[in-house]
Amino acid sequence: MTDLDTFRADTRAWLEENCPPSMREPVRSEKDAVWGGRDQSMLSPDQKAWMDRMAARGWTVPDWPKEYGGGGLSAAETKILREEIARLRCRNPLNSFGISMLGPALLKYGSEAQKLEHLPKIARGEIRWCQGYSEPNAGSDLAGLQAWAEDAGDHFVVNGQKVWTSYADKADWIFCLVRTSKKSKQGGISFVLFNMASEGVSTKPILLISGYSPFCETFFDNVKVPKENLVHELNKGWDVAKYLLGHEREMISGMGLGGTGGNPLIEGAIATIGLDADGRLADPLLRAQIATFEVRARAFTAMSERFIDELKAGRAHPAQPSTMKYYGTELNKARHELIMATRGSDALEWESEASRGGAAARQWLRTKANSIEGGTSEVQLNIIAKRILELPS
Amino acid sequence: MPLFLNDEQAMLRDTTKDFVAEAAPVSHLRSLRDSNDPTGFSRDLWKQFAEMGFTGILVPEDAGGLGLGHVEAGIVLEEIGRNLSPSPFLTTAVAAVEALKGTAHAARWYPGIVAGETVAALAIDEGAKHRTDIVMTATRSGNGFTLSGAKQFVTHGHVADLLIVAARTGGAASEQDGVTLFAVEKDAAGLTASPERLADSSIAARVTFDNVQVDADAVIGEVDGGWAPLNRLLSAGRTGASAELLGVGGGAMDMTVGYLKERKQFGVAIGSFQALQHRAAHLYAEMEVARAAVLKAAQLLDTGDDRADGAVSVAKAMTGLATTLAVQEGIQMHGGIGMTDEYDIGFYMKRARVLAEMFGDANFHADLLARKSGY
């Protein structure tokens, strides 16, 4: 056996022993997902155990260096771990913007002190982060942001408003884009970190069409931010912001994969519509739509594997996250349209127990934001056209 | 194994890219068509493929080949697709070689294939749409079998030295048991191959078997057990056709993006218009997804993974969808000039249609995947 074969066997055995059976069931609602943070009172014992066991091995962030709480695994080992997790259908032990967005940016741009302070807490799920990017007048035109950070000696004083801040009301800290110069649009932006418990921070959840409030308006009223919390150089936050956006898009594109454990589209279709005598879905037109969708979904799974492999090997095109984000989110919207179509009026119930509180309908509505958040599909197409196809302006 | 080409494979791609673009660009296809060439491909080019080692790419080393895999075969096919190079490579060096692998026929046919002298054709399809049903019969007679029936869409069938024929020795039309695969030589009595030129200028034969007598040793593998070699043939053919489609779609896309940068209207390059940029970018995304699907299928076939069959269907369906989009957008974005015979983009559309149909179209494979998923 090669070293990698041994690693695979050991990993499989460890996961089988340590992943509680309930953590191998599909994630069915928002509260099934573990986000970590200071307040972990809502976690079930299994959720907590699964997160803590994975974190203890550094496997919530398998390819981060060990000194920052990671597993220190090579690209090949990380891939094997991922495959074995998928094989056992284990849930993600820890959903975290710290892992998917801030962490990679700090690893590249953070000071040693910042890495040592923040990364291990992210890896262990102790601190939950939110992202302060969009503003009421800076959406697709993100660099037009206005939240102002005034230099006050050893700290900044931040004033302004963010919007579409995911889970701001539940987050412990924020990574935030602020304006530190008015001389240049992109060249006047800085990237800062601060505690959401700071005086002057307030949040207001936004009620969405799904009936949920995953996003907030976030207000800063004379918030003191120590200068040691500036990441990278002053007025160079746009570099950090763009790098982080690539990781955000990668994360959002993961929605195109449809999660681990079973295939809710196919299972739901069979349960609701039934099979004919030949074993085919009894609605031939829906069957054809699902089958064609599944071709794209499975091809996109291969695309994701390829993208991650290329990324780890440092050979992905820097604009390729835009391709992933565009395709993955459009796919996810299509998936939920089909889920609604296959389940018919059962899926329309908004509150009933049978519908688990309208889970399918609310998820369907939630996916409509996929192609807007993190840069709209149209912004991604612009990026592909300009940076990959090199079409003229 | 990472899902990208390793260093040796990347080197093969670079060599192949240069070679095929030089030896058989689209103008080569055009001249064969314009001269109404009765063979449908250049035998000189087939010899050159042998000199490059391409013909033996899937032939084991101890049989004189390179002993490489479907990933490498796909690299060659993608360049064939990109240049629309007419070649018996897919039927002969990929599908036939895989069907014969590990059988007594390998020793008989591999040397000629590796040398670029032998051409093989696949007599599988019996109707206008590819299906896995086999109706054509092979009945025992004397020391062998009598073949009766008809096949169509037999690419290169009119010039092939070897026909690989699927026939039924038992069971019902849709059953896998009872299929037997035969190696039939071109001069067999009662065998008629009528060449038909297709829309893309390639030539496929309608082949009739009028009580064709073959010896028992014409059987590839086991009597009634032809499904195994047939499935090897189909998996290799489908993956290969997917790689070729990727090349056709990629070639059409590159040509179209190039045109968007050159063509001026209203005083600016039309590629500066967002309406066209978004369509080109969407096409790029579809082609990238298709590319990943093809490499995945080839890798799984090469490692003998039991998920390979599903991945092959995903690849064939996805390249069918993506390349169909590429050639349609290609003509539309070229505008009027795209409709002219003088311009090459139309050749891409025609080739894509033929390859999309070959070994099952996107609907065929989506249906296959659905059945495997239990719906």
From TrEMBL, chain A:
Molecular function as annotated in GO: flavin adenine dinucleotide binding; oxidoreductase activity, acting on the CH-CH group of donors
One Pfam match: Acyl-CoA_dh_M
Keyword RNA-binding attached: no
Occurrences of domain Acyl-CoA dehydrogenase/oxidase C-terminal (ranges): 235-389
InterPro entries hit by this protein: Acyl-CoA_Oxase/DH_mid-dom (IPR006091), Acyl-CoA_Oxase/DH_mid-dom_sf (IPR046373), AcylCo_DH-like_C (IPR036250), AcylCo_DH/oxidase_C (IPR009075), AcylCoA_DH/ox_N (IPR013786), AcylCoA_DH/ox_N_sf (IPR037069), AcylCoA_DH/oxidase_NM_dom_sf (IPR009100), Mycobact_Acyl-CoA_DH (IPR052161)
Disordered: region residues: 19-39
Key words of the record: FAD, Flavoprotein, Oxidoreductase
Record's keyword annotation contains Zinc: no
CC annotations in GO: plasma membrane
Stretches assigned to the Acyl-CoA oxidase/dehydrogenase middle domain: 130-223
Cofactor dependence: FAD
Residue stretches making up the Acyl-CoA dehydrogenase/oxidase N-terminal domain: 6-126
Family stated for the protein in its record: Belongs to the acyl-CoA dehydrogenase family.
Protein name: Acyl-CoA dehydrogenase
Organism: Sphingomonas guangdongensis
Lineage, top ranks: Bacteria, Pseudomonadati, Pseudomonadota, Alphaproteobacteria, Sphingomonadales
Automatic annotation (TrEMBL), chain B:
Domain Acyl-CoA oxidase/dehydrogenase middle: 135-212
Membrane-spanning segments: none
Cofactor: FAD
Pfam families: Acyl-CoA_dh_1, Acyl-CoA_dh_M, Acyl-CoA_dh_N
InterPro entries: Acyl-CoA_Oxase/DH_mid-dom, Acyl-CoA_Oxase/DH_mid-dom_sf, AcylCo_DH-like_C, AcylCo_DH/oxidase_C, AcylCoA_DH/ox_N, AcylCoA_DH/ox_N_sf, AcylCoA_DH/oxidase_NM_dom_sf
Signal sequence range: none
Chain ranges of the Acyl-CoA dehydrogenase/oxidase C-terminal domain: 225-372
Acyl-CoA dehydrogenase/oxidase N-terminal domain boundaries: 6-117
Gene Ontology MF terms: acyl-CoA dehydrogenase activity; flavin adenine dinucleotide binding
Alphabetical keyword list: FAD, Flavoprotein, Oxidoreductase
Assigned protein family: Belongs to the acyl-CoA dehydrogenase family.
Record protein name field: Acyl-CoA dehydrogenase
Organism annotation: Sphingomonas guangdongensis
